[in-house]
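Private note to self, pasted from the team thread so I don't lose it. Backbone tokens:
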């Protein structure tokens, strides 16, 4: 009884609670201070390495020979990750331009700030290009502005096992130097990937809400408590809605692990224990949806069964387009083209990837009832038509 009374006294002690919460808060702050910048430091270090490698390779070529050798220097575009280059004299006169040089412009501020070490002066929105500048040791000390191909830093692939996603239903990650969020709705069998580093003034940290819209769980931002539509990425409440934020979608491909690793051998994958020492069952849902949707889904487009899996994508004209996964895979395996409304589908692993022209298009899979309800009037590719 005495022990029980001591426990009760400890629980009722406000000072004890304050100490406990303060210590716990300090642990969280310290972990955040250590863990959050780690990925950022890695990306920044890789960008610095890329810039330094370019300078080490290019500067000796600048130092050797006179004006006649500059043409040979321009021919180095395509090597050492060099996509474009421009050289300017002290007076701003263009000495040489080659490759992707259109926006590599001279400015007085840039000229004054440039030193012998490369400085990063810009990066494209998609992360594929990095612009750097430095003052060459060549006679006259020309200003060098180079555009480097950094696409390898955004070409990372990462696999998230479905059984882990079915438990957590949300991932916030950094991939290829970009912040992304991947909600997974078990009710709709949908996994979208959204960029979370493009909303001006905001850096959403998304969580699954457990609340449903047409049997699809919508997300919320932990920092602003704004609700975000999982299927469209559009903010539907809170400060993000007031700022008219719609998250841009990337592509999520659903494939077996073996086929994906064969096609993308450098893929990283979430550890079997999630990196937290947890045990995940192979089938967390235990066949929950085998008999159909467990919640009301409204009127369903009769062209396919409610649980037919489709790949959904938005065409260049804004029209939603869908492809029945099983039929598309059969057609591709038979050597047939799978295309409609300017959107084509190709195999990736044993999953599907969408293209508009030669460019990859954001796409994701979902049950037909979900895709057709969020995108009424969607075009449906049908084999043989």
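Design output:
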């Amino acid at each position: 009884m005495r022990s029980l009374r001591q426990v009760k006294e400890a629980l009722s002690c406000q000072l004890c609670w304050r100490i406990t919460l303060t210590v716990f808060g300090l642990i969280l702050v310290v972990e955040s201070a250590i863990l959050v910048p780690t990925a950022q430091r890695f990306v920044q270090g890789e960008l610095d390495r890329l810039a330094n490698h370019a300078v080490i390779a290019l500067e000796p070529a600048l130092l050797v020979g006179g004006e006649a050798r500059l043409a040979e220097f321009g021919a180095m575009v395509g090597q050492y990750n060099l996509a474009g280059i421009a050289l300017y004299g002290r007076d701003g006169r263009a000495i040489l331009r080659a490759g992707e040089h259109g926006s590599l412009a001279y400015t007085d501020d840039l000229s004054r700030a440039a030193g012998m070490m490369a400085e990063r002066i810009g990066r494209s929105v998609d992360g594929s290009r990095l612009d750097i500048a430095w003052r060459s040791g060549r006679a006259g000390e020309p200003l060098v502005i180079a555009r480097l191909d950094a696409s390898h830093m955004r070409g990372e692939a990462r696999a998230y096992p479905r059984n882990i996603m079915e438990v957590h239903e949300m991932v916030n990650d950094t991939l290829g130097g970009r912040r992304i969020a991947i909600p997974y709705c078990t009710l709709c069998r949908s996994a979208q990937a959204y960029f979370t580093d493009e909303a001006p003034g905001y850096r959403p940290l998304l969580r699954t809400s457990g609340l449903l819209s047409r049997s699809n769980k919508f997300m919320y931002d932990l920092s602003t408590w704004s609700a975000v539509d999982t299927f469209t990425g559009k903010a539907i409440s809170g400060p993000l809605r007031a700022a008219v934020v719609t998250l841009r979608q990337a592509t999520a491909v659903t494939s077996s692990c073996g086929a994906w690793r064969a096609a993308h051998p450098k893929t990283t994958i979430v550890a079997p224990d999630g990196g937290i020492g947890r045990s995940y069952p192979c089938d967390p849902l235990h066949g929950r949806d085998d008999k159909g949707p467990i919640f009301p889904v409204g009127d369903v487009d009769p062209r396919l069964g409610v649980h037919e899996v489709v790949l959904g994508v938005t065409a260049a004209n804004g029209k939603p387009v869908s492809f029945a996964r099983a039929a598309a895979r059969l057609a591709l395996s038979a050597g047939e083209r799978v295309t409609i409304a300017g959107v084509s589908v190709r195999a990736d692993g044993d999953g599907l990837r969408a293209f508009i022209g030669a460019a990859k298009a954001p796409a994701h899979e979902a049950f037909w009832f979900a895709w057709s309800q969020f995108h009424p009037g969607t075009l449906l590719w049908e084999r043989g038509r």
